[in-house]
Amino acid sequence: MISVQILSSALLLGIAGSLHCAGMCGPLILAMPFHTTGGSGGLRHLLVYHTGRILLYASLGVLIGLAGKGIAIAGIQKGLSLTAGFFLIAMAFMMWRFEFLVASIPGFSGYTGAVQRMIGRAMGKKGYMTTLSLGALNGLLPCGLVYGALAGAISTMEAAAGGLFMLLFGAGTLPMLLTVSLLGNKAGNKIRRKLGAVQPVLMIIAGSLLVLRGLHLDLSLFESAVPRAGYECH
After folding, report:
1. Residue 127 lies in domain
2. What pLDDT shows up at residue 31?
3. Residue 139 belongs to a domain
4. Would 161 disulfide with which of 2, 11, 25, 131, CB 3.0-4.6 Å?
5. Are 138 and 132 in contact (CB under 8 A)?
6. Please, what sign has the CA dihedral across residues 196, 200, 205, 210?
7. Per-residue pLDDT reduced to its tens digit, 215-228
């Protein structure tokens, strides 16, 4: 069963990621065609858009969780969780540099361009299914925080747990991105600047939770270390 440490780290990563996403994805969200739809119709499209994005994250979590299960069968569960935790902590100190390093991977620009072209074609269409697909395509765009979250998801070593991890990560990004959508990119960026210092702190906490999990510093460990009162029959 997925631990509280894992669930907490997923949500913290989402909240930290939302501060990053406000700057990176805010302009893209505001450019979406449903922003020209007024009233409740625009709000419905906005929620469908984010549903598509979060479902894409969850689907990636299922796949990466399965990969983690395969690695766990090899008997390196502890190392996997420790590696994921230290990876997130490292990202907290090199967030923007990490984006540059990912973008410099050979062939990665071609992948990014292909996703952007699909988004461009979809934006010329209407309907809720199009809005859902636009959200999913947004989730495929390069993002260091998403890759960090996937590192956490692989440490769950289960398909369902990996999906839940990424679902919570996506939910954590919602408040900030909804703020940008409803109040505009200028208001979102103002909030992001004020809370910018919080992002690396949240990432370090999330990474530390995964490290603690890897070290098995949980209640069951302490309980097993404390002798139980009473007599034993021999």
Report:
1. 4-215
2. 73
3. yes
4. 2
5. no
6. positive
7. 864 434 333 334 44
